[in-house]
Write a structure and sequence with these properties.
The chain is an alpha/beta fold. Helices cover about 45% and strands about 15% of the residues. The protein contains 13 helices and nine strands. The protein has a five-stranded parallel sheet with strand order 2-1-3-4-5, sandwiched between helices. The termini are far apart. The model has no long low-confidence stretch (mean pLDDT about 95).
Length: about 325
């Protein structure tokens, strides 16, 4: 098995992210003190998909209205009645200079929203537009966003499990890294199939749907130029299932939340009619050291890292580096 994953570097990166705990908790206390009445998460590309997962999960824990907007659409959207001085506007960006997100924050500034951002650069444009900016030492939106938001809910009296969760998170990246290593052969086999086929169909749903979109759209298509289609398990039987034949490569992301029966229905059909079919079952990717009550909460974060490792195996086969682009940020468009 080709080694494409630096376990020690991953664990150290997670340690650095967790090291931002005090600053993130202080940011949550500041937002709580503002009397926040709703939360608007704005992202584009990967961040938008990650926020979709986070919002869907946290809606179970709070009466605080949570909204997720795609930054480009938000910038041209006319009707925004939820946007007030009592809105917490949350965003994240690796570079800190994503133009659509900058435009969205400028709108938020005009409405006196309380803006909190996470980027990997202290002196970025997005940081400059924020009331509070917390450094994200590595691209780990889930960890920083969860610490901040779950602490905010805890202060509101809505997430009493926060103290237990935050202590267990100290070992999360070590446990996740071990989990990824244990499934390396399985992921390498998936990469081999992705390399051989020109097209793949992906299904999944529920609290993992946003992350499935991130992987197919921002990783397979953008970073590897692999033609894909992604569909929710519920919508699978209203169109894409007609594509299944002996030549089709299909993948199913099988969740561990209440939507799992929809995934199981897809699995039963695909095993019979898809030419090549793989299941990435999150029940087999539970991280040791994290309580059962937190597995659904952390499943999108687990899927994010697992699929990125899958992309690493694919990149090693194709020789197409994950950082190579043809158009993205190459010129004005």
């Amino acid at each position: 098995m080709k080694e494409v994953f630096d376990f020690e570097q991953f664990v150290e990166g997670g340690r650095e992210v967790y090291g931002q705990r005090e600053e993130l908790e202080a940011a949550a206390a500041e937002a709580f003190g503002k009397g926040i009445e709703n939360v608007l998460m704005i992202g584009i590309g990967g961040t938008w998909g990650e926020f979709l997962c986070i919002a869907q999960i946290l809606q179970r824990e709070t009466s605080l209205p949570l909204y997720v907007e795609e930054a480009a659409e938000f910038c041209v959207k006319v009707h925004k009645p939820y946007l007030t001085e009592k809105t917490l506007l949350l965003t994240a960006s690796v570079t800190g200079d994503t133009k659509e997100t900058i435009g969205a924050l400028e709108i938020g500034r005009k409405k006196d929203c309380h803006i909190v951002s996470f980027t990997e650069k202290e002196d970025s444009a997005i940081a400059g537009l924020s009331d509070t900016h917390v450094l994200m030492p590595r691209e780990d939106v889930y960890t920083v966003a969860y610490i901040f938001l779950l602490r905010l809910l805890f202060l509101r009296g809505e997430y009493p499990l926060y103290p237990k969760w935050i202590e267990e998170m100290a070992g999360f990246h070590k446990g996740l890294g071990a989990c990824m290593r244990a499934h390396g052969s399985e992921l390498e086999a998936m990469a081999e199939a992705l390399d051989r086929y020109d097209y793949s169909l992906w299904a999944g749903c529920g609290t993992l749907w946003g992350e499935l979109h991130v992987f197919t759209n921002c990783v397979l298509e953008e970073m590897q130029w692999k033609r894909t289609t992604s569909v929710t398990s519920g919508e699978f039987f209203h169109g894409p299932f007609e594509l299944l034949d002996g030549n089709l490569l299909m993948f199913l992301i099988k969740g561990i939340d209440e939507y799992r029966p929809l995934d199981e229905r897809v699995e039963k059909f695909a095993r019979k009619y898809a030419g090549k079919f793989y299941v990435l079952d999150m029940a087999e990717y539970k991280v040791r050291g994290i309580g059962d009550e937190f597995q659904v909460l952390m499943a999108p974060a687990v899927l994010s890292e697992v699929t990125y490792l899958l992309a690493g195996y694919l990149s090693a086969r194709t020789g197409h580096d994950l950082s190579f682009r043809r158009y993205y940020r190459k010129f004005d468009y």
